[in-house]
Design a protein that fits this description.
mainly alpha, 0% strand, 75 residues, elongated
Length: 75
């Protein structure tokens, strides 16, 4: 099941990659952007980026819960 998800052979594979990209990779990229924004002393912009990162993490967790409940794939 996990191999099929990695190769996008099933609908769950799409959910897996959405979870990885939106829930893990994009917040890491945003973390670098947030650090640079803080160095420029733009705290309001950094706060907005933090809110976006938190929403992305929550969306990734929702996809992860769906994967767990539908096929038992634990991420």
């Amino acid at each position: 099941v996990i191999g099929a998800a990695l190769r996008l052979e099933s609908f769950l594979g799409l959910f897996f990659w959405i979870r990885v990209v939106i829930g893990i990779a994009a917040p890491l990229v945003l973390a670098a952007m947030i650090l640079n924004t803080i160095r420029y002393r733009a705290n309001m912009s950094a706060t907005g980026l933090l809110y976006i990162a938190v929403l992305m993490i929550m969306a990734g967790e929702a996809f992860s819960r769906y994967l767990l409940l539908s096929d038992g794939i634990l991420l």
